[in-house]
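Hi R.,

Here's the chain you asked about this morning:
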Amino acid sequence: MLVTNLAILVLAGFVGFVVISKVPNTLHTPLMSGTNAIHGIVILGGLLVLGLSGGGTLNKILLVIAITFGTINVVGGFLVTDRMLEMFKGRKPAKQEQLEEAADEDEKKAA
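And the predicted structure, written out as tokens:
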């Protein structure tokens, strides 16, 4: 049973690597957003299982660790997605950029 489960894990990892490596860069950001949404559902399921699980301290510790890593993954994914979307935005005109910098300096002086 253990060998079968390990074989499935290794094959799933290999297939995932092959599939993801063929994704073009332009599709990476939308796929990342979708994956983050799915992982958010997984975290919610982990929280439900943690609240409803009746036994085993080890199970609860493992669930807390899994939820923590899942949360880090979701937050990091959204940060990467946000950064990638910033790269696609056009550059602001120089005059507007200077006005925004002046406004920022005025806010700093006022604080």
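The two ends are 64 Å apart (CA to CA).

Let me know if you need anything else.
M.
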